[in-house]
């Protein structure tokens, strides 16, 4: 199949007055006037109909380890084909991939689902992952790629904010093997002011993924604000523990970027927040240089099962299914 750029009619919308288009893909519920785009910048009203402008337009394509997604309990020490596109339905002031998510002029190459699967097969990766920008806004293309990937025996992964309406999310969930939800905060006011997000919608989608037993992991971003950081993390940890306490959470330090007015998070604060998660949840990681909390340990006896460091990731001998120390099932899928 020859690669070509095409404009695909979007789904999850209804016609409105004066040729407007009411998009129901995410919680923004954009009412889009003719010749204008929604908050995401890629779903455009053309003569009263809504189109996805970025079908097949891939701006980043590279092979990465599971930990870069990040994904700690699904195929550790494996490689994935990571795709990034342009646009986002959030406007995070601290976005560290803003060149893709907030810039409409980023370069791209046209890739069909068949080409991407062929590339994944040639690279010997275990699956295809969408991240870098928010994959929700290109749902039609993501679904096409994921269907083709599954037919070829590849796994599928989404790194998402969770900013999705439930109907559209439920549909993409049926094609997704694993997700990483990027939690910015548990504070609805912060999410609205600094990200343009909706906490209620995000939590509902996390809950849905957990209830449907789709492998899910969480990243938790730490800002520089020491007051309330621990208590807010504890609130979310309690919420998550009620639903699935073995869900892995990876704490990420905020690095000052884009238009963020504050400072980067301190190493001390990040360690404090990781400790908060560790008190309520079975697996709490801290992704930071020289972090002592990158390894996966047996929840039963504490034995290190997966080593992570500058040299890469190694699954310890004899840790494929059960812990050699206490015979408990390992918490990850190889």
Verbal overview:
The protein has 334 residues and is an alpha/beta fold. It has three domains: 8-52, no CATH class; 57-294, Alpha-Beta Barrel (TIM Barrel); 296-334, no CATH class. It is 26% helix and 23% strand. The protein is built from eight helices and 19 strands. The protein has helices at 98-101, 113-123, 139-151, 166-173, 188-195, 199-211, 229-243, 267-280, and strands at 8-9, 13-15, 21-23, 31-32, 43-46, 49-52, 57-58, 60-65, 79-84, 109-110, 127-130, 155-160, 178-183, 215-222, 249-253, 284-286, 296-297, 304-309, 312-315. The strands form five sheets. Strands 8-9-11-12-13-14-15-16 form an eight-stranded mixed beta sheet. It has a three-stranded antiparallel beta sheet with strand order 1-6-5, with no helix packed on it. A three-stranded antiparallel beta sheet has the order 2-3-4, with no helix packed on it. β18 (304-309) and β19 form a beta hairpin. α2 packs across α3 (139-151) and α4 (166-173) runs parallel beside α6 (199-211). The longest helix is centred in the last third of the chain and has 15 residues, at 229-243. The chain starts with 7 loop residues before the first strand and ends in a 19-residue tail after the last strand. The mean pLDDT is 92.
């Amino acid at each position: 199949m020859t690669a070509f750029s095409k404009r695909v009619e979007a789904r999850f919308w209804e016609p409105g007055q004066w040729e407007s288009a009411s998009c129901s893909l995410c919680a923004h519920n954009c009412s889009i006037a003719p010749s204008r785009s929604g908050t995401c910048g890629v779903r455009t009203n053309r003569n009263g109909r809504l189109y996805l402008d970025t079908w097949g337009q891939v701006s980043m394509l590279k092979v990465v380890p599971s930990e870069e997604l990040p994904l700690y309990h699904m195929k550790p020490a494996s490689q994935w084909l990571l795709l990034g596109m342009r646009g986002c339905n959030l406007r995070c002031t601290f976005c560290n991939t803003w060149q893709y998510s907030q810039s409409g002029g980023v370069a791209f190459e046209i890739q069909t689902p068949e080409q991407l699967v062929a590339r994944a097969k040639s690279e010997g990766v275990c699956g295809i992952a969408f991240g870098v920008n928010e994959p929700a806004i290109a749902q039609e293309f993501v679904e096409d790629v994921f269907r083709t990937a599954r037919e070829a025996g590849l796994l599928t992964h989404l790194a998402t904010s969770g900013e999705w309406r439930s109907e559209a999310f439920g549909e993409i969930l049926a094609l997704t093997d694993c997700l990483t939800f990027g939690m910015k905060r548990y504070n609805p006011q912060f999410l609205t002011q600094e990200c343009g997000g909706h906490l209620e919608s995000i939590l509902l989608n996390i809950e849905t993924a957990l209830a449907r037993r789709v492998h899910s992991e969480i990243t938790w971003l730490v800002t520089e604000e020491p007051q309330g950081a621990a208590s807010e993390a504890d609130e979310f940890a309690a919420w998550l523990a009620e639903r699935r306490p073995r869900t892995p959470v990876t704490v990420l330090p905020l690095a000052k970027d884009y238009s963020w007015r504050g400072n980067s998070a301190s190493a001390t604060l990040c360690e404090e927040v990781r400790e908060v998660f560790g008190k309520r949840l079975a697996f709490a990681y801290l992704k930071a240089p020289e972090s002592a909390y990158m390894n996966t340990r047996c929840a039963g006896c504490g034995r290190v099962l997966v080593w992570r460091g500058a040299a890469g990731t190694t699954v310890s001998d004899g840790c494929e299914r059960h812990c050699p120390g206490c015979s408990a099932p390992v918490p990850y899928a190889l």
